[in-house]
Design brief:
Length: 246
Amino acid sequence: MNELIGELQEEIAELLQPASQRSDRFSQNQAKERKKIVEVWHEWVQELFCDAVGFQIGGAAFIHAFSGYLQMLGRSHFHIPQDKLARQPHPVSWLRVKILAGTVRQHGYENLAQELEDTWNAIALSMGIIEDYYGYYDDEFLTLIEQTINDMLIEADPYSHSLEQQNLKSSIFFCKNYNPVELLNRAWQKFRDEPSSYNQWEKMIIREIIETDSKSKDLQHQRICFDRETTGRKRKLTEICFSCDR
C-alpha cells in the first residue's frame, strides 16, 4: 500500500512542477507549498480508499449513510480555508463525495452516483459555497487518484456487495437468508421507497429476525443434546464390549 501511495505522491509532485523555476523568495515559498500538497496526499488517499472500501462492502447503504451524516455537519465539510488544509487528516468532505461518486459510477451505478453529486451540489449552492481546494486538489489529479484507489482495492481485496442482492420481496425469505449488509441495504431501500410505512416494516423485520434466531438456537441446542446422548450411548456400548472381551 505504501508503495502505491508513494507513487501517487511522486506523480502529483510532477504535475505541480512549474515549467520554469527561479531562485527568489517567491519561488522558495511556492516550493514549500507544493511540498505541503504532496505530503498531505499521503493521508488523504488513505481516507479515499476507506470510502471506496465502505462502498464495496456496504453498497448503496454505505452511500446513503455516509452522505446523510456528513451533510449535517455544516459548512466546514464543503469548504476549508487554505491555511488549514495542510493540517487536515482527510480531504474536504465535498471532495470525498466527488471522488466516491466516481468510484460508484465505475461500478456501473450511474443513477446512484448522479444523485450523490446532485445532492451535494444543491446544498453547496444553497449555502453560496464555491468549490475551491487552493491547489491541494486539481482535476488533473483525478485519474491518478482513481487508479491508485483501484490498485489499493485490488491489493486489499475486500468483500464486495452487489446492489442486486438487496432486491428481495419476501420479508420472511429475506430474514431466513439475510446477512447484515443485505439487511441494511434492504432497510434503506424500504425507507426511501415507502417512508410512511418504514417504521411498521422495521418492527416486523426485527421480530422475524429474533424469531428465526430463536428457532435456530433451539435447533442447535437439540443437536447438541442429541450428540451428547449419542456419544454417551457409544461410550457405554464400548465399555460393555470391552468387558465381554475380557
